[in-house]
Write a structure and sequence with these properties.
It is built from 3 helices and 4 strands, in the order H-H-E-E-E-E-H. It has helices at 10-59, 64-69, 129-151; strands at 71-74, 79-89, 95-106, 111-122. It has a 4-stranded antiparallel beta sheet. It has one domain (11-126).
């Protein structure tokens, strides 16, 4: 008596091959996403460092005219950084609203990126003396008027 041989049919083999192929595609896509995530994190870190360095240059400039002219520099790995600042005085003496724009041109990667930040800076050297004195006097008068109201004086 001969026993029948047991083997996979062609349909079973094709289903197993399809399952393995799908698993390979899913694992490959997951691996690619991880690599792209690392690349994005590294690029974000470089951009943050470039913006931080440009901001430090701005913070160290004592003259308003130099700040409004902006500046540019090249990093050690070939990125060109161009920064500009728009400075507006506030109603508080020596306090300024600053719109800071940094353009990062990476010729090797073929990507340009623009980062815009808004912040306030206290810079007495940027003030014009007569405007600053006028604002100080107005603040002084406002404080005196407020204190008189608190004390019940008229």
């Amino acid at each position: 008596m001969k026993r029948p041989q047991r083997a996979f049919t062609i349909v079973e083999s094709m289903v197993a091959l399809a399952i393995v192929a799908m698993a390979a595609i899913v694992l490959g896509a997951a691996y690619l996403n991880v690599l792209l995530g690392y690349e994005h994190a590294e690029r974000a870190s470089l951009v943050d460092a470039d913006v931080r360095f440009a901001r430090e240059i701005l913070f160290r400039m004592p003259e308003l005219e130099d700040v409004e002219d902006g500046d540019d520099f090249e990093t050690e790995d070939g990125r060109r950084i161009i920064w500009r600042a728009i400075v507006e005085p506030t109603q508080i003496p020596d306090l300024f609203d600053v719109e800071f724009e940094v353009e990062i041109a990476d010729n090797r990667a073929g990507k340009n990126e623009i980062v815009v930040e808004r912040f306030r800076m206290l810079r007495p050297t940027w003030s014009e003396d007569d405007e600053s004195d006028l604002l100080r006097q107005e603040l002084h008068d406002d404080i005196e008027q407020y204190l008189a109201g608190v004390r019940g004086e008229r």
